[in-house]
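cache lookup: miss for this entity combination. No prior model stored, computing from scratch. Input as submitted by user K.M.:
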Amino acid sequence: MRCEVVAIGTELLLGQIVDSNSAWIGEQLALSGIDSFHQVKVGDNHRRIVDSLKLALSRSEAVICCGGLGPTQDDITREAIAEVMGVALVRDAAMGERIRQMFESRGRTMPENNLRQAKLPAGARFIAEMPGTAPGLVCPIGQQVIYAVPGVPSEMRAMMRGTILPDLRTRSGETSIIRSRVLRTWGQSESGLAEMLAPHMAGLDESGRATLAFQASGIEGIKVRITVKAPDEATAKTLLEAEDRVVAGILGKYVFGRDQQTMESVVLEGLRQRGLTLALAESATGGHIGLRLSARDEAEGVFLGGLILADGRLQTRLLGVKESDFPNPETTAALAEAVRAHTGADIGLSTCAVDDRKEVPGVRPGTVFIGIATAAGANTERVQLPGDDRARIREYAVISALNALRQRVLA
Amino acid sequence: MRCEVVAIGTELLLGQIVDSNSAWIGEQLALSGIDSFHQVKVGDNHRRIVDSLKLALSRSEAVICCGGLGPTQDDITREAIAEVMGVALVRDAAMGERIRQMFESRGRTMPENNLRQAKLPAGARFIAEMPGTAPGLVCPIGQQVIYAVPGVPSEMRAMMRGTILPDLRTRSGETSIIRSRVLRTWGQSESGLAEMLAPHMAGLDESGRATLAFQASGIEGIKVRITVKAPDEATAKTLLEAEDRVVAGILGKYVFGRDQQTMESVVLEGLRQRGLTLALAESATGGHIGLRLSARDEAEGVFLGGLILADGRLQTRLLGVKESDFPNPETTAALAEAVRAHTGADIGLSTCAVDDRKEVPGVRPGTVFIGIATAAGANTERVQLPGDDRARIREYAVISALNALRQRVLA
């Protein structure tokens, strides 16, 4: 089974947007055991879209078109597919009504243009998932098929997962299944993890019972993906769990979670289990830790909130902590203690950092101080991060602070 | 003059790497006035690379191959180009020696494999720029040409700038240049903007003096890109500025900035010019506004910081604002006023929202209250956002709050 990807949009050719959708789709196809030998980008030009689709259908059984489903005149994917199918576009009254209601529910009037989105080639059907106002399409052509999805990544992904990948697997007659699990790690480099796992991976290569892949994900740490192929779900689960135990055993403290777990979900869940509440004093991180924690459902009743200390004067005014000439361990611990006292939280967490804007004697840029205050007292950890990029220092400070909290309070 | 891009590498199709090279090349071609109507990705397969190159040469005068020039057995771009040219690969002794010396100058011995990189199709020449160990190629085929560059972005860019773009411009006889400018907008949908601009765009289509394109960018708003073609920089600038005035005049308050400006840079710059300081009370947005503001250099001395109010108890404890049963305009205004008073800032900005976790009589999920307190008093604006996705409500609340501040204080 072969499936090509046709990304549609002049902005892609002009480099105004990087086409990351095709890469994601390619990865999902590979995980489903479907070959993808060609991926192309083409602009908003009817003739060239039609030619690209015909070429793709001459080489592959299925084609996924991404983009060009919007409401404006340069969104012409629908028209191009209709020409390739040799049919007319028809308007679907129910879809028109649905789009109109989506606008109304947001208190807005639907521009008439949006009714273009309620059209589809005769013989095609809409994709059930529809997170935005652009419906996706399944367009059968004999034994072949063209799918059309919007270029908005979240909408595209929902349609891929809910409709297209299952449909492709049914068409391909693939019966074995591929399943994977991700171990989330923090605190060790990709090559460091690879060295730790090298002897085990040599054995895996021989037996073929699973594969391991590393994915460096910046502030999300390094993901270790375990993939197995099995005749059924139960066997896949058994294989995954056995492999998980071995790999997690080798990597030890670096593993903080699995799959959808994040550093903050793990921290919040751990605090909840222990009946602890948390408050923040964010100097280095400017609200970023608060943002990540409060975005999670697990935050309710556990994360109380805290202070963003962008300007040094605020820590004195709101917390009574004297302003210091430069970030240091003592002030960081005092901030954690003060925010704990002022908010009544069980734990206070604070961040201060030295970046390249101000020279601090004896401290390198990229040094982050993390203060943790509990009923047992307050202290400060120090981590050294890549020093020359302020945005990166901040991002790494966020996850380092949460990791420090995890290792201190939840160990 | 048309030029296609063929990105070579199985890892691109599998989504292990996102092909950002093609986007960059596409942008450079556009800026040089060279059309690029197709960009394709193909794996490390001889037959399919050859077919892709032949197809590209059937549609365009020039082709840029990116990737597959390394020293290993799966780097087969050289062989594929030789087949398309109908010539043999020959080894260049001087290049072999140059690569050997590059290794020696780094204190390493050249693996014999690397001599593969000293080969080129008969009739081709090496590209002068060579920042790594992989030489690039210029391969003439009659009046057409195939260029080959490595996939390493820095090496590819040096060869593009130094050799390929100048060569293409000479071949095309193109003397005009293309320049563009982006107007940043917030508060109107893509189709709404398109409707506002429709009469003007019809006139542009006729005159051809500029083109307009829309780019929906989620929380970053919708970008309106103006592009002009001109014989020289001065004329391009004049054309851009004239078009900017017309488009900005039509779109009015929806335009908040241009090119690299962001909503927060515009707000911070405006506050600085007026000598005003700002503090936040973030309930709905959990630190997200603080994060965005404090990430900017312009924040210094303008943005003081503020409070993250995740749990309702904190607003009473830290700001003395009585907890209410549910988010409402009065409490939101009181929070803005209180954070202004407690921090000593000139302006207090607060956010409260109703999401789908708690039913509030008479208020739909997705309703966000934005409180703004100044020396003149406090009041609350209300915006209705897409209601069913909490993460989206938050993100839209952030930019809506900053936009409200922009319109209120900086107008």
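stored under new cache key. Residues 17 and 144 of chain B are 30 Å apart (CA to CA).
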